[in-house]
Structures are given as C-alpha cells and as structure tokens.
Amino acid sequence: MANHVPASFLTRANALFRKNLTYQKRNIWSNVRLIVIPFYLCVLLVGIQVLFDTQVNNSADNRCGCRCIEKNGDGKCETKSCGLEYSSLTQASFCAFPNPPPLLPLLQIPRPETRSVVDPVRGSCRRTGSCPVTILVTGNNHSLGASMSLTNLLHGTTSEADYTNYLDPGLHSDLPIFQIRPRCMPSTNLSFLFRQTPLTFHKEVRCLQGLSLWRNSSVEVNDEIFKGYLQGNPKKITNEVAAAYDFLNTDKKNFNVSIWYNSSYKGEFKIQDRRVNYVRVPRSVNLVSNAYLRFLRGPGTKMLFDFVKEMPKQESILRVDIASVIGPVFLTWVIVLLFPVILNSLVYEKQERLRIIMKMHGLGDGPYWIVTYAYFLVISTLYIICLIIFGSAIGLKIFRFNDYSIQFVFYFLCINLQISLAFLVSSVFAKVKTASVVAYLYVFGSGLLGGSLFQFLLEGLSFPRRWIFVMELYPGFSLYRGLYEFSVYALKRNLNGSDGMKWKHFSHSAMDEVFYIIIVEWFLTLIAAYYMDRVSSSAKDPFLFLKKAFKKSTSPQRHSLQRKGPAVSIEMEKLDVAQESEKVKQLMLESSTSHAIVCDDLKKVYPGRDGNPPKMAVRGLSLAVPSGECFGMLGPNGAGKTSFINMMTGLVKPTSGTAFVQSLDICQDMDRVYTSMGVCPQHDLLWETLTGREHLLFYGRLKNLKGSDLHHAVEESLKSVNLFRGGVADKPAGKYSGGMKRRLSVAISLIGSPKMVYMDEPSTGLDPASRRSLWTAIKSAKKHTAIILTTHSMEEAEFLCDRLGIFVDGRLQCIGNPKELKGRYGGSYVFTMTTSSEHEKDVELLVQDVSQNAKKIYHIAGTQKFEIPKAEVRISQVFQAVEKAKGKFKVFAWGLADTTLEDVFIKVARTCQTSNILS
C-alpha cells in the first residue's frame, strides 16, 4: 500500500545514506585503495630519506674527519681517532671545538689582477702582481684622514672567506698571507701555532704596499668603488679597493664613521649563511679604530688585535630530514589529491543526470547536500588520519615533531575547504574528463607554485607581507603555508632540539593567520556553492539578484498571462484544441480542482546561437489531465514533446505561461511537486553497481514507503515488469540488457503510486512480450495517477492512452481519444492494389468508377494506395468492382482497410508541416 504523505527530511536523508552505503560496499576496494594512498606516499618519502642519508647525511664530507689508529687481523679498523687534524676544510665544521684555536685576523684584499691602479702608466703591475692595495678615505676632517696610515700589524689575504673560521682558508690554503706596509721589505716566513691543536702552520708572508688615498666626498668614493667593482670575469680589468672610510663629522669628541667593505669575496655559501659577508670586517674596524686613536693620542698609540676566535661547540653530524625539507610540496600534493576524487564524483552524477533523477523522485537539496558532504568528509578524515598515522609510524619528523592536535585541526579545516571548493567548482563543469584535467592541474600547480614561487616570496624580506596574505587566499597556498610552518618547526627541533609546533606557538607563527583564512573561506565557499547549485538546478541567471535590484518589481499574477502589444496575427485553432483551452481557463479560476496537471498557455523559446534565430519549441500549450488518465503525446522528432516534459519535470523553466501539478506552480513550488512525481526518462539513469532491487528500495524510501509496505511494493514492482524471476532483481544494473534497464526505469517511475508520472518513450527497445507485460503494468498503475506519455508506437498509444494529443511544430494540433481522432481525421478507407506496371492506369480508372473523390496516396512498382471517402462508397461496391477487374487483368494482391491511428498521425503531421512551410 502506498503512503501518500511526502517523505520527511530525515526519511529522504536516510534513503540517500542507505543507497550511498550500499554503493560504497560495491566499491569497497576502491575506497580502501584511496585510503592507503598516504601509506604508499609515506613509504616513498622514507625511501627518499634513506637514499639521502646514504649519499649525503652519512657521507664522509658531512662529518668530522677520522683516521684509523689500529687495524685487526682482517684489515678492518678497530680504533680510530677523529678531529681537526684529520679533517678537510669541508669536514672541519662538524668537529668538536671545546676550546677553539685563535686565528690571525685578516683583511680581505683584492686579487692582483683586479686591484686599483692609480697611475695608468704603471698598469703593468697587474701582470707582475705588484699593484698596491688601495684604501680610500673621506670626511669633514682632512687631518683625521691623513692619520689613516698603515702599520706593520695589518695582514691580509686574497682567499675567499668560508662559512666558518675553524680553519680559515686564508691560513690553510696555498695562497700567501700579505703584510701591508707603506713601503715593502723582502718576504719572510712566519709560523702560526694554534694553542689547542698540535698543528703548526708555516705560511709564506709577503710584503704588499698599501696606499691610503684621500677623496673630497663620499660621492667620489662611492662612484670610484662602483666603477671598479668585481664583475665576476677575471679577464675584465677592474679597479677594486680593499676598503673605504667616511669619517663624516668625526672630531675629538665624536667618533662617527661609515665603512665600505668588499662583499664579493664570500665563497659558495653566500646564500646559506649571511655571516660570511662579515668574516673579514673586524680587521677593517680595527684599522679605523687605530687611526682614530692616533688622531687623539699621537702616532705611537695603537690598539692591539691579536686573534679572532669561534664559539666553542660540540661535535655535530649533518642530519637533514628530507621529509621536512620537501614536505610542504609533497604533502600539498598528497592532501589536494582528494580534490579530483570528490570533484569527479560530483560531476559524474551531474553528467549522468543521476542527481536530477533523484531530485525528480523527491530527494531535496538539503538531504543531498548533508549526506553527500558528510560522506566526503568521512572519507577525507579517514584519509588524513591514515596519513598522520602512517607518517608517524615510519618516522617522518614533520608528523612526529609537531603537536598532533594542531595537525588534525589544520588538516580537518583544509579538507572541509577542499570539499566546499569541489561543490562550488562542480557547478561549472558538465563533463568528467574536463573536470578531471582541471582538477589535476590544480593539484600539481598548487604544489609546484607553492615550492617555486610562494616559498621564495615568503622567505624574501623585500616582498610585502600584505601580498603574502593576499596570496594565501588561494586555497593551495594557505595549505602550503601551514605545511611550511610544520616543516620549519620540525627542522628546528631536528637541528637544535627545540620544541616542534605547539599551541603556545600558534599566535607567534603564521598558523593563526592561516586558520582564520581557511575558516572564513570554508564558510564563504560553502554558501557560494549552495547558491550556485540552486541556480544551476533551476536554470536561473546566477546574477539575477543583482538585476532585480536595479529593476522595478512587478507582482506576478497566477491566473492571467500578461501580453504586451496587439497581436500581429491570430491563428484559428481546431475546435478540440479550443475546447481544451477553454476548459483550462475555467479550471484556472477554480480554487481547487481534481485535475492533477493543468498547463496554461505554456511557452518555451530557446535563445538564438551562432547567428541562428531563436527557436520556439512550445507555442502556447494549454492542457488539463485529470487523475486516473493516461494522456499520450504524439508528434514527429523536434515537435517539442521533450521540451514540454523538461518544463514539467523542472529541467528547464518556461519562457512564459505556467503549469500546476496538484495545484502547485511548477515555477514556484517545484521542490514540493517532486515529492509526488515519478519520471521515466528517455535514457536510463541508473547506478551500474546497484541491483534492480536496491534501486527500487532507494526510490521507494524517497516516496515514504517503510517496513513491510516498502518490501511489498518492491516485490510487486519487480513482478510487474518481469524482473523478479531467476535472480535478475539482485544482479547489478550494469549487467542488465537494454530492455531490462528500460523495464527497471518504468518500475522506478511507478513505485510508491505517485500522483503524476511522466514517461518518455517507455517501451523503446523491448521485445513484443516484454512490451505487452509493461503495458499491462502501466495500465494498472494509472487508476490513481495522471500519466503523460510520449511515444512513436501507435499501438502503444492506442492500448494505454485515454486521450491523445498530436504535437507538431511546438503546437497542439488535435486532441481526443483514439476513436474520436480516427473518426475525425480518418473518414475514409484505404484501398490497396498490386498489378503489373501496364495495368496501373486500369486500376486508377477502377477506383474513379467507385469514387470520384478518391485520392492516390502511394505508388511504387505496381502497388498503389488510395483514400476513398466512407460517405461515397459501400464495402460491397468495392468487392464487386475488384471481382469485375480480375476478369479484365491480373491482380496480384489487393486490400481494403479502415483508417489507423498511424494514418491519422501522418495526415495531421504532414498537413501542419505543409501549412507552416507555405506560411
């Protein structure tokens, strides 16, 4: 027994939940493979880490150097000693330095081939390497500049500074050390003893002339330095100076100086460690300080500068966590990988029209959104939990070193934003392939742009912070920023043992900004997605609310249609069509009616495209269908039948006019109409993995069938369409033949005894036996249901339909039951005779003798057909004439038939199409 009370919100949500649960059981391994993807990706990260450890972290160059002291019998080392004395320059930084050695402070001086040459004639000094070292001086006090003399305590080197002074390349390289003096003496060898190591470095010390030159202003100094700056090309002649000083307003009471130093000699570590720029600066500061002391106290005053020293440190080994380094890019790909899965699922339902067929059977937007969103959220949450568990279990520090609660909240917010974004984007696409391409571009583009562009701008101090905030409005960058913060804190803990990301760091890091952006975007995207979904499902203009704000509102009238301007032409309607229009007008004036469907001057015009004029698909249709009647719509292809069905089922909106279903306006109350409607579309809209029984259970629940009533209705529906025997009902619909799918679609449209049913060519592709049983099921179902049926089978129309309407060129041409139409448009017999070709004229004369108004309608290869008006002839006359003709010539075959419905259809269609062409 059918329950005619519309299903509640929870009932419809429960129906969709059960259907989705059953669907996922059929696709359980697809979900399992999706959820374990993080495991494979984490294993890949571990593999990269192992490879990096083997080639980089555990390599000899990334630890303090060692030497074997004692070997065993098989040649393996039993005892080894590690320390600075066994280390190369690369290894030295990893050694322990409990008491670092003192190092000679050196001034960075230009290479011989690039030094400044005061006298161009003496430019040959570049070839001999004897060019002096130039120091430029300026300021307000010329006498102070004159005190800038060079003493014999100044030492310099042309060796580039390294990122550490444990072993200064200036001392440990083969290059000599220079002693800078006003006048040079012969070269000497000096030996430097390091206090904490047994090493003694014997270095060749050469004398190098130094010039202190006065310039009138800092502009001159700056210009001279700029023109002589090293360009990186050794063959290019430059004029580099060792240093320059601007004493500004320095006097005996005020010491104010600016120092120019050469930052081009800073080795290959210039990006990784900014301290390299200042390794040689202390000697420049000492030089200018001594000059000031001599200015204050006299030539004999000087400040001793014996050595420089590094901070003590323990032995260290390079341990780079590759997962933390590449984690932001890699994990961005891992998490955003869910986006194509969600988007493809949503677009697939749209492409296969599964969403709209569910909506037509009563599934509202609210239950659909809640259940579908909850399903994607559960899958995404399981995916993220597995990612965190797998990553932590196999030792990825980006997971283990950061607080799990912060990680979970961050990822949870990200997947919610991602689901909302997928809902929003799905309204744009109609094809799964297009959506998939765009989604994967978004996936890989987010990671690559994050790693190559966003991180570069994030770490660059010159890029405005407000533009970082703007970039984070892009969901891929906000996700990347959060992962970047996790990686930074994980790296810090890995290097120096500090805390990873904790809640106490929330406001000090950028995570608070990221959280706020994601939360706001989540809600805004969800609202926009819901709005776009409602707009796209109702075929409205998405910016209609803006247009209404600038237009004066007009109050709609339900029972009258506004027509502007005088009619250009008035077409006389057929009497039966005119009577139907009058009937509709009377029904529109009544407050309630027993008619299930009432269409009032319904019109649909499709806008012109590509230079073509607008297409009028339905031209003012007025129709009333009472409950218990099956109304058949006949018409040639392109007549407007499908457009009419699409308007009645809510797929498209009428251009003008309206229709009422159970007194509900299809333009205003379509959601309520869906609760009592059944649809059998022209093409079967089924889930390939669900069985026939599961389809009917789902749609039965949407019709508010429960318990035993539901199962009884499902059993009866399966039996009525011959899908009950042989276990067919429990086979997946994807394994059904075309005829079986068609029967299942009819059963779906009729389950729950809906108030009205629309069937678009329901028996297409069925064999005669199945067609006959299907007709019986439809005929028994129409007792309390109004059915509108389109078909090209005249036999089907005559068997099922109480009334028929022939639709041509968007207009209803005639209406009535089959007998009335045949009597009205078929008042003639069809006489057929087949003879040899030479007797065709004799046949025409025979028919003219029987009826003067007979009309030939068919002629091919000796076979001719004629229409003979019933009023002018009796059947006995025809028989007598045929017998008389047989005596004159040979008759191969002949026949006399009454007009069929097919003849009526062809006659009306041809007449109307001819009149349209002539007009």
From TrEMBL:
UniProt topology in membrane: Multi-pass membrane protein
A Gene Ontology cellular-component term: membrane
Location of the protein in the cell: Membrane
Entry-linked Gene3D superfamilies: P-loop containing nucleotide triphosphate hydrolases (3.40.50.300)
GO MF, any single term: ABC-type transporter activity
Cited SUPFAM superfamilies: P-loop containing nucleoside triphosphate hydrolases
Descriptive protein name: ABC transporter domain-containing protein
Presence of the UniProt keyword Transmembrane helix in the record: yes
InterPro entries in UniProt: AAA+_ATPase, ABC2_TM, ABC_transporter-like_ATP-bd, ABC_transporter-like_CS, ABCA, P-loop_NTPase
Domain ABC transporter: 597-834
Pfam families xref list: ABC2_membrane_3, ABC_tran, ABCA12_C
Record's keyword terms, sorted: ATP-binding, Membrane, Nucleotide-binding, Transmembrane, Transmembrane helix
Domain of life: Eukaryota
UniProt record similarity statement: Belongs to the ABC transporter superfamily. ABCA family. CPR flippase (TC 3.A.1.211) subfamily.
Membrane-spanning residues: 34-52, 325-347, 368-396, 408-430, 437-458, 473-492, 513-532
